[in-house]
Amino acid sequence: MPAPLSSPACARALLVxxxxxxxxxxxxxxxxxxxxxxxxxxxxxxxxxAVVPYFERFTTRFPTLQALxxxxxxxxxxxWSGLGYYSRARHLHRTARLVVHQLGGALPSNEEDxxxxxxxxxxxxxxxxxxxxxxRTLPVDGNVARVLARILGERRPIDRPxxxxxxxxxxxxxxxxxxxxxxxxxxxELGALCCLPRQPRCPQCPVARFCRARAQGATGSIPLxxxxxxxxxxxxACVAVRRRGRLxxxxxxxxxxxxxxxxxxxxxxxxxxxxTRAARRALAGLGLRVExxxxxxxxxRHVFTHRDARASVFSAHARGRIEIPDARWxxxxxxxxxxxxxxxxxxxxxxxxxxxx
DNA sequence: AAACCGGGGTC
DNA sequence: GACCCAGGTTT
Length: 357
Hints:
Largest sheet: 7 strands, mixed
Helix content: 40-55%
Radius of gyration: 24 Å
CATH architecture of the largest domain: Orthogonal Bundle
Strand content: 15-25%
Order of helices and strands: HHHHHHHHHHHHEEEEHEEEH
CATH class of the largest domain: Mainly Alpha
Number of strands: 7
């Protein structure tokens, strides 16, 4: 039988381990509420290693909430280029403006008010309340859910909302009155360094003696996750059009894939449609007429969480005036300051290989 | 409850 | 290639 969880010994053992083993992360150096906010938004569904360089660049460019509020959205998105889930950047920017212009410049300090901010859901509100404002609450992310499921011996799928809620309810009982923020980070750190998804390192775990999954020899089957649907395959055609050394780019509309980022003009192939025809539609939608033939210049594949995208890239000459505002002719040296996705970069890289005619 | 929204680390 | 990650919003 595992040791009883009700004793404060579990939290104490975890905190001792945390202070000895915690990683030196940039947002732990000057743990202001602003730095916590930026890091939490960046870390949503994103591994720590991927976030570190983005956090450094972002907070250097926007050192304060006020500086961020004063920035253009385009510049905020540009610093997010390649990190993914671009709505997070817009939400962070909107939150900064809302706090500076309507809340007097200070973030709310309680969970309920934090929850009202754009991009701040149940997890992030709890994380900010605990870490930045020392509130006794427990943010339950993927790591913490796994740790709790194992400690508590939860055998139902942890990605179900009702199960997640139960884990949180039980988990909050473990939070000590002192240093709830360290406890939250310690739970996450345990999940990241010790209570690993596939091969947990139980011999070095500070709370192994409290763990039901460990006692039952079930760390391999806990946690359980519901099956996720297969990703759908989509075929796209995109076109590189140049004028006077500039490349034509369009901005993805709001509420679509890669919203707000710049890509080559593109269209999804309809059932049975040839790629060249879809490519012509992409330009016709901008008010351009293709002159001569489309030249195939490459193919690329890009896998998203829910889409497996394959794209054919063409080059073409086109006449006519652009009819929509979210399109522009871009010089090569302007690319660095534009919000681009990794997918967009791949297409542009292929387009750049084509000789300028 | 389920779908949508990126990208990459890691085994 | 599969799995997972300091999730939120919309439907």
